[in-house]
Amino acid sequence: MQTSGFQRARSAEHKQQRRDEMLDAARKLATDRGVRAVTMTDIATEVGVHKSAVLRYFETREAVFLELATEGWREWIAACVPAVHASGADPAKVARAIADTLVERPLFCDLLAHAPMNLERGVSVEAVREFKLATFGHIDRFVEAVTTVLPSLTDADAHELVSAVNAFASTLWQITHPTDAVAELYRTDPQIGHAVGEFGPNLRQQTETFILGLLARRG
């Protein structure tokens, strides 16, 4: 049930404010609990409205998080590109620039795994199209930065790199952030305890290895 103080937004400005409040709530909840654990009802409760009020602004739960994924791409690229440019032509520093700017964005890393698995499957085709077009624009900036500092790499190489880093970050994030029950299993069972690892160091190592492989292929 809606809280007694809730009033439906009427003006465009108030509607945008209400929408932003819902995104802020989803962002906070997903950061605290993980994307998988947050429901539309949770978002509504955090804002102080009925679930039906959230549905006036977002077609599904997945639409909320797909918008946060779009935001995540924008913010990561805004940080990653200057860091790559500042790294010079050192592959290890380029890898660290890419990996560290991802490590600083845990929610984005979580969203990277959910986007293809379920977010894109729970929204309209037009919403997926908008998400892809926005993402491709950010990737173009990444490609330009990488090929500038590592000129022996082609645009195709840089596209392979961002695809690989996406896969590394999304998979490693899920592996290194298990549920509490599974985390306890890792802590108490020496036979499998080594399987978790640390997110940041593993991401840096895999990113650097991939860049070195691309450079070796180019000779």
UniProtKB/TrEMBL annotation:
State the UniProt keywords alphabetically: DNA-binding
Q: Which domain of life is it from?
A: Bacteria
User: In this protein, which residues make up the domain named HTH tetR-type?
Assistant: 16-76
Parts of the chain that traverse the membrane: none
Q: What is this protein called?
A: TetR/AcrR family transcriptional regulator
Spans annotated as Disordered: 1-20
Q: Which residues bind DNA?
A: 39-58
Composition-biased stretches (Basic and acidic residues): 10-20
